[in-house]
Design brief:
Blueprint: E1 13-20, H1 24-35, H2 38-47, H3 58-68, E2 84-87, E3 91-95, E4 101-104, E5 117-122, H4 129-150, H5 167-175
Antiparallel strand pairs: 1-2, 1-3, 1-5, 3-4
């Protein structure tokens, strides 16, 4: 996909939709169990550090096997792409001289549901594929951070990191004084809104799956 002539590539946000290969019920249980697993949280920290050794995804695979009821030997590793069902083609998002937003949409896979995530990154030149993977992992964790901040509460500790997450959230941090610059990796943060965070804010309750007629 070519970038429209009226913008420079560095001014565009490049987007790709991601579809995870789990039913919503299983995915909700998976997220809750992973967030409560200290080994998985430690692995997330290593996943966003390009100088760290490649993380061992054994804790993730063990949790996944328990949730799905499969033998651990039958669960593919995270590095094998066990979560990924499909991705869209590339979308290009930009704003013009009058601050009007535009998006040139790429083709979507033939899946009748919304994507679970949208990668939104600006142009950069990674030194290696490891650095690219770490940057995307950090970007998605920053999106989790943005979801909590958008609700006016503090993100859990593993997600209190700085960097670009949701593009729309970053625009808000840039232009509204009541936000710190969470999208800026060099910013000094004065608040994570802990004082507005309920004690049970991080408890995940997944409703039972609806029963169907035989």
């Amino acid at each position: 996909m070519s970038v429209p002539n009226e913008i420079q590539p560095a001014d565009a946000v490049y987007q790709k939709d991601v579809y995870v290969g789990f039913e919503e019920q299983t995915l909700g249980s998976l997220v809750g169990d992973l967030l409560g697993n200290d080994d998985v949280m430690a692995a997330l920290g290593r996943a966003i550090d390009p100088t760290a050794a490649q993380p061992d995804d054994a804790a993730f695979s063990a949790t996944l096997a328990e949730i799905t009821g499969k033998d651990p030997a039958d669960v593919p590793s995270l590095s094998d792409g066990c979560l990924l069902e499909a991705v869209s083609d590339l979308h290009v998002h930009w704003d013009d001289a009058s601050d009007q937003y535009h998006t040139q949409w790429g083709e979507q896979p033939d899946i009748e549901r919304d994507p679970h995530a949208r990668i939104e990154i600006v142009e950069f030149d990674p030194d290696s594929i490891v650095e690219l993977k770490c940057q995307i992992a950090r970007h998605l964790l920053c999106q989790v951070r943005d979801c909590y901040l958008g609700m006016g509460i503090a993100p859990p500790e593993p997600f209190r990191l700085l960097g670009a997450g949701h593009h729309g959230a970053g625009t808000g941090y840039e232009h509204y004084d009541f936000y710190d610059r969470y999208h800026d990796p060099t910013a000094e943060i004065s608040t994570w809104y802990e004082e507005y965070t309920p004690d049970d804010a991080y408890e995940l309750s997944v409703p039972p799956a609806a029963e169907t007629e035989p």
